[in-house]
Structures are given as C-alpha cells and as structure tokens.
Amino acid sequence: MRLDRWMDLGGVSCWRLGGRSVHAGSTWQTRVSGEVWLWLNHSGEGVIWGAEDRMFLRPGMYAIFGEDSEEKWRWTRLPGDHVAEVVVISRAWMARKLGESSRLVHPRFAEWLQGGGKMAFAGLMSGPERELLEGLQGMTGRDPGESLRVEARVLEWAAVRLFRTGRSDAGAGFCHAIRKRSDPVARALGVLEARLSEPMDLQRLGKECGVSPTHLSRMVKQRTGLNLREHLRKIRIAHACELLSASGSTVTEVALEVGYQSLSHFAKAFREETGKSPGEWAKMS
C-alpha cells in the first residue's frame, strides 16, 4: 500500500492512498517545508506524526499540517482497509491565488502566508472536507479538464475554511493551531520528543522555553487540551508503536527504551492510547 501522486499542478498536488493493510507499520514519510498537507481520511485508522505533534485519524476525519523547516512527518497505519485523498498546497501558490484578499483571511493563516510557521490540526470532516473528498475520488488525472476542476475544488474549500476570523467559525480550529517556531508550547513539545526516555523535569523545561513552569503548563493545556504529562505519554506510546512494528525488541525492552520502568504502567498507558496491549500490537506487525 502506497501514497501515490496522481496530479501535480505546480503548487497543488493530489495524492491517493488505497489498499488493505494486514499489519501495522509506517506507510509514508516525507519532509514538509513551505506547504500544507490536507489529509482527507475516508477509511482506515492510523497516526500522522511529526517531531512535536501526534494526530490519530479514524474514518471520516481530516488532518492539516504544515511546516517551514524541513520537519519529517510520518503516517503509521493500523490493520484494515485504507482510503484517503491528500492535497498538498504550497504557501507560495496559496499566497499568489489570494493576492490582496489575503488580508481578509484568518489572521493566523495570513501570518503563516507571510512568514511561515507551523500548523497541526485534526478533526471530523464537515461539509467542505466531504465535498472536496467526494470530488477528488472520481478523478484520475488523465482527463485534461481535471486540472481546472481540482484547482476550483481546492479554492472552494479554502474560501470556506480560510475567510473566517471567529473562534466558532469554520476555519477557527486549524487556523488557531498555527504557531511560530519560537512558540514556547512548540518548544516544550519538541523537548519532550527529544527526551522521551527521561523523567519530565518541569522546572528545567520551563527554563529552556523561557517561561515559568506554571505558565508553561497553563499554556500547553489551553492550547492543546492536554497537559504536559499527557503529551509525554502520547509521544512515548507513538514511539513504542514504531519500535514494536519495526524491530525485534521485546515488550520489556521497548518499555524501557521509551521511559517506562514499570511494565504494568507501560501496558496500561499503551492500551489507553491505542486500545490494544503491546503484545497485541506486536503480533499485528
């Protein structure tokens, strides 16, 4: 099962994932720079993850992520049937299409268009995503007129998602998730990723991020809905999934490598994050 590109318009490209997976494991990875990846997940379950973010996708969900510093992103699949349409939109193409109208889009997205940054958001598909998904599914890239249809559908999606400013509006979710690289929250999550096998030291973390530990904890919770320990658990378990899928390590060895000294604590955390035991996950690989 592969992620195949079926159209490239020089600023917008369309990709398709389809097939059945018997085992869990990584299907795709790439470095993302100066572009937005819009992942429309029709069926199948898996995790999209970068250095600082984890997004678990179920059928009927979408994810949007972008970066301007060559960060590597991966898709780790679970067993089952997988169908997804993926649209990659360059920042330069979007800025060119919007022109002067860029001042009318969501302020966070306007900042991203001008100076880059990072976004990572996942949620349930609503009308704009479902219409884009259904429109793309009928295309193959062989019809000469499809290039215009693809561009029109992408711009129609953008018109709904980007030209909003309120927190309750259609684009508020991922637009409010856009952040600059200097953001203390992004910095904190990056440090947790780099030191996932170490106990979390909140005092040290706050000092490295340039804010007080209390303020950092509050910022992370308000921004992401999860506290720092919950993020660390997600990072550890996501890495454990990779190790169990790709190596011959035992469950005990993996638990120790991702920072768990207690096998029972590791098993509990693993099941709460994935719905399966470490042993069950290893057998699927």
Automatic annotation (TrEMBL):
One of its GO terms (molecular function) is sequence-specific DNA binding. Keywords: DNA-binding, Transcription, Transcription regulation. It comes from Haloferula luteola. InterPro entries: AraC_XylS_family_regulators, Homeodomain-like_sf, HTH_AraC, HTH_AraC-typ_CS, Tscrpt_reg_AraC-type_HTH. Residues 186-284 form the HTH araC/xylS-type domain. The keyword ATP-binding does not apply. This is AraC-like DNA-binding protein.
